[in-house]
Design brief:
The chain has 801 residues and is of the alpha+beta class. 21% of the residues lie in helices and 26% in strands. Strands 9, 10, 14, 15, 16, 17, 18, 19, 20, 21 and 22 form an 11-stranded mixed sheet that branches. It has a 6-stranded antiparallel sheet with strand order 4-3-6-1-8-11, with no helix packed on it. A hairpin with a 6-residue loop joins strand 30 and strand 31 (726-729). It starts with 45 loop residues before the first strand and ends in a 10-residue tail after the last strand.
Length: 801
């Protein structure tokens, strides 16, 4: 997702799982205080190291601490990396992470240490900040001596600095963080060594330099009154993964001896300029770790790329290597001639291709090893889909990989360019999470974050957390849809109840722009709907009215009314249903083109789109008897085209086209709509792109929805009641002859197996205990009971397992 006005901005770890009952959030007042360097600038780019010596008579069973920092920290105990954080939020919801340090402690002297950094104006757009600081709170009396500030020391790390992103012939909107430079000659290689303590270490001090009160830096939990800006809340997510992964294999080198690197070490002679290009075959999000010896005066540049570029900066077959180059995010490592020096950036990188551009000085440089540690939200794929179709299998795998790499401590639209949590992308990502993993924790984070982002006018921000506010009013409507999705798929309605007041302020804001004819007039800010090949969507008539944005408003009114009816205010639900009826009538009266049998994008009837017509079917603006005719006109449109003047949907908005097909009883046509994804397979994408054609991003979450569609439309497994209290299974196999799938339901696993025999269907549906539902095929509906249900035999039976 990009901003409409483009601005170029230069820009986890293993941890012991806490046993049940160990405190992960203190409900008492904390005694720890925030600390920083006593003289270093607080808001300029800076890397700091903190350390404290801890004496223990014996190894404790548990040693629980809560840790936070602004911007970020990596925590170590006795040289072992314990974890990182904090997960991003805003100052009113500043996360702290909880770790049990006991597995890393020993009797006697122990060293607690942390690297903390703040990249100032070069920080990622997703990063909110006040000033550089660190905090550690011991959970109880046993851990109290570890708390900051007592005994904590700090030093400035002069050898690690941000590398502001320079275009260097490669210009694209970037919202992620900067590259990093590690100058080994300046770097303190012993900062985490308990046996060495250099002269740069000083006693840590309060970061609240402007405050006259000695207690100003005391840690304040949310709801407390303190004199600093961080209102602490527990991070309710699990720690991010930090596990070994393949960094890639050398596929091109102008140093013959380097062809087997990193499987084997390689020594590069002095005064040589060498390129090594490594290929992983699939994109990853990981921390690269390059270890070298010697090479004083050398310069190593790491360039990370999703794909390689030709001389015109165009991508093509993602496997193509010859005469192509890596462009984009980069780091620098300057060896000092020392032995076993390891470069690892503070923040992870996204790459398929990694280019090492090495210029040696007078001294030879030995590349000892290149490793990588994969990081992402620790989702586990619990769903499966097998239709004996190789293309569908690849589409499933690529969709899962895309969704996985775009999920960290927040969802992200793209792990390479932006790393921002946008509502439009996140709605689809959350549905993939529910259906492929059964894990709703990251989605709950997102629902709350968008609620907390709301501006005084009542709208949510389009992306959050972010230090650069952006308002896309139509995304606030999609947030209401996202709440409705959660309500249908997950058994705990409390996040929806908590957010209902926010849905009311959003709809109240939109009601101010509702005209007497029921349509919305042009909205302030950016009413993004979808990327189109030409023109603009939404478009407007002479009165600045839009059918397209009004359709999204209609969908939000319907979703909000259903939630209010069950969870909120029934009177308000009736009011919203009445508004929806008026709006639906207005859209049809002003936008239906009787000649073309399509819905126009505005009352001017000058432009038409796949987007508007998909929504018009989905929300029953088009009468039921006309819906299939509308869809038959638009279903075959290729992304990035406009045949007959009808703008086609991007990969993203085809999510709504799929829902419209289901609504109109045409879900058997869905597999044919996967042609745009099938067309990408010969280009060897390992993740899905943002847009058709010469796309900017090669890994965009919103294009991963086929994984969700295959389960819910082709396998046909969908909730039949809020909270997934019952299930409706209506498979749409098209020309598929067999299909097997598993689906993680809150009560267990739903398993289906179907085989076609002419027009007949045979198979089984297995439901978890206490789940009932219905099975629909060829217009007939049968009851499903817990346990094994046989399809094709009458009656459908259930056996408890």
């Amino acid at each position: 997702m990009r901003r409409k006005l483009f601005v170029v901005l230069f820009l986890s770890a293993t941890a012991s799982m806490l046993p049940a009952g160990v405190g992960v959030a203190a409900d008492r007042q904390w005694n720890a205080a925030w600390i920083t360097h006593p003289t270093a600038p607080l808001r300029e780019p800076r890397v700091l190291h903190f350390r404290k010596s801890l004496q223990l008579a014996a190894t404790p069973d548990h040693y629980v601490v809560h840790v936070s920092a602004d911007n970020r920290f990596i925590l170590y105990v006795n040289g072992h990396r314990v974890g990182d954080g904090p997960a991003r939020g805003d100052l009113a919801h500043w996360r702290y992470e909880t770790f049990d340090l006991a597995p890393y402690l020993t009797p006697g002297a122990n060293l607690l240490a942390a690297t903390v950094w703040n990249f100032g104006i070069y920080a990622p757009v997703a990063q909110i900040t006040d000033r550089t600081a660190f905090l550690l709170q011991g959970d109880g009396p046993v851990e109290a001596s570890a708390s900051t500030p007592k005994g904590w020391m700090v030093e400035i790390e002069a050898g690690q600095v941000p590398v502001p992103r320079q275009p260097e012939g490669f210009s694209a909107y970037m919202a992620n963080g900067p590259g990093e430079e590690l100058d080994a000659a300046k770097y303190d290689w012993h900062w985490n060594d308990s046996e060495v303590s250099g002269s740069a270490w000083v006693r840590a001090a309060s970061p609240m330099r402007e405050n006259i009160y000695p207690e100003a830096a005391r840690a304040g939990l949310a709801g407390e009154t303190v004199d600093n800006y961080w209102q602490l809340v527990p991070d309710e997510l699990p720690h991010m993964e930090y596990t070994p992964t393949d960094p890639g294999k050398t596929v091109r080198s102008d140093e013959p001896a380097a062809g087997e690197f990193p499987a084997d070490p390689v020594t590069i002679p002095g005064n040589r300029h060498v390129h090594l290009l490594l290929d992983r075959k699939t994109l990853t999000t990981a921390y690269p770790q390059l270890t070298v010896s010697g090479g004083k005066g050398a310069n190593i540049r790491f360039t990370y790329a999703e794909a390689l570029y030709d001389e015109k900066q165009h991508k093509g077959d993602r496997d193509e290597v010859a005469n192509r180059q890596a462009l984009g995010v980069h780091d620098r490592f300057l060896p000092d001639g020392g032995e076993h020096r390891t470069f690892e950036p503070l923040w992870w990188r996204a790459w398929r291709y990694l280019d090492l551009d090495i210029q040696t000085g007078d001294q030879p440089l030995t590349l000892e090893s290149l490793k990588a540690e994969f990081t992402a939200y620790p989702f586990e794929q619990r769903a499966s889909f097998d239709a004996k179709d190789p293309d569908l299998a690849r589409i499933w795998d690529i969709s899962w990989r895309t969704a996985r790499l775009d999920a960290h401590e927040t969802y992200m639209d793209t792990p390479y360019y932006e790393q921002l949590q946008y509502i439009g992308d996140t709605r689809i990502q959350a549905l993939i999470s529910y259906t492929l993993t059964g894990d709703d924790r990251l989605a709950r984070q997102a629902l709350a974050a968008f609620d907390e982002s709301r501006i005084p006018a009542g709208l949510t921000q389009s992306r959050y957390p972010t230090s650069q506010p952006q308002i896309i009013p139509t995304f606030s409507l999609l947030w209401i849809g996202m709440l409705h999705d959660y309500w249908m798929y997950r058994p705990d309605p409390s996040p929806v109840k908590e957010a209902l007041p926010g849905t009311r302020t959003v709809l109240d804001w939109f009601s101010r722009y509702e005209q007497p004819d029921g349509l919305l007039r042009k909205l302030p800010w950016w009413s993004f709907v979808d990327w189109v090949s030409s023109g603009e969507l939404p478009s407007y008539d002479a009165n600045d009215e839009s059918c397209t944005t009004t359709l999204q408003y209609l969908g939000a009114l319907l979703d909000a009314a259903e939630m209010e009816q069950t969870l909120g205010d029934p009177d308000l639900a009736k009011h919203e249903f009445d508004r929806a009826k008026r709006v639906r009538t207005g859209i049809y009266d002003r936008c239906w083109d009787a000649h073309r049998k399509l819905l126009a994008d505005s009352p001017a009837h000058t432009t038409f789109s796949q987007q508007s017509n998909a929504l018009a079917v989905l929300y029953d603006v088009v009468p039921r008897n006309e819906q299939q005719g509308v869809l038959n006109q638009i279903i075959r449109l290729e992304p990035g085209t406009a045949p007959g003047g009808i703008l086609s949907s991007s990969y993203y908005f085809r999510f709504y086209l799929a829902r419209a097909l289901d609504r109109a009883g045409m879900a058997d046509e869905y597999p044919a709509t996967l042609k745009p994804w099938r067309d990408l397979l010969p280009l060897h994408f390992s993740t899905w792109p943002e847009t058709p054609g010469d796309t900017r991003s090669d890994s965009h979450a919103w294009t991963a929805h086929p994984a969700y569609d295959l389960l819910t439309l082709v396998a046909g497994i969908q909730p039949a009641a809020p909270g997934f209290a019952s299930v409706r299974i209506a498979p749409h196999l098209a020309d598929l002859q067999t299909l097997s799938a598993e689906f993680p339901h809150p009560r267990g696993t739903i398993s289906v197996h179907f085989e076609r025999h002419g027009g007949d269907l045979e198979g089984t549906v297995t439901l978890p205990p206490n789940l009932i539902g219905s099975f629909v095929w060829s217009g007939k509906e049968h009851a499903l009971l817990p346990g094994l249900n046989r399809i094709g035999e009458q009656p459908v039976s259930g056996t408890t397992q």
